[in-house]
Design goal:
Blueprint (H helix, E strand, L loop, with lengths): L4 H15 L7 H7 L4 H13 L3 E4 L5 E4 L8 H8 L16 H27 L2 H14 L8
Antiparallel strand pairs: 1-2
Helix pairs in contact: 1-6, 2-3, 4-5
GO cellular component, one term: cytosol
GO molecular function: DNA-binding transcription factor activity
Organism: Mesorhizobium tianshanense
């Protein structure tokens, strides 16, 4: 199954932002965490700003920061702000006139609805603080006392 790289990249960025809440991080700094271009970072997290998950400021000392405490940000909120489905199969028909596709979609419809409900329920219980705590624990297990930002 292909992973959702946009969600993965966003979570990487947000966990690092959680670890450095005392100051804003620039798009350039955030790009180093996911090995990409600062423009990709800005595009990736623009929806998060619109949802109030992050804030941004311009000029000297500006950059991106969390919009509220990590304990108040659920993975369901992050996923919704990105506007993407997390299911490994499309819910939109690619070829609406195809009878085979219609049969497959009809057979999977109940499953899809239940899978979306269960996934949304689980994601609403996991917070950014949970991910950051697990990240810190794993970081300490490998014997690193601090991480560069």
């Amino acid at each position: 199954m292909k992973r959702n790289s946009r969600l993965s990249s966003t979570l990487h960025i947000l966990v690092h932002m959680t670890e450095t809440q005392e100051h804003a991080l620039t798009s350039e700094q955030l790009a180093t965490f996911i090995h990409t271009n600062p423009v990709v970072v800005r595009r990736t997290i623009a929806g998060l700003r619109d949802a109030g998950i992050v804030t941004s400021s311009r000029g000297h000392g500006g950059g991106w920061q969390l919009g509220r405490a990590p304990e108040k940000i659920s993975l369901a909120e992050i996923s919704a702000a990105l506007g993407e489905t997390l299911l490994p199969f499309s819910t939109e028909p690619e070829s609406p006139g195809c009878l085979v596709e219609q049969a497959v979609m009809a057979a999977l419809d109940d499953f899809r609805v239940e899978a979306e409900r269960l996934l949304a329920e689980k994601l609403s219980r996991i917070t950014l603080a949970d991910l950051a705590a697990d990240f810190r624990r794993r970081y300490e297990l490998i014997g690193v006392t601090s991480h560069a930002v």
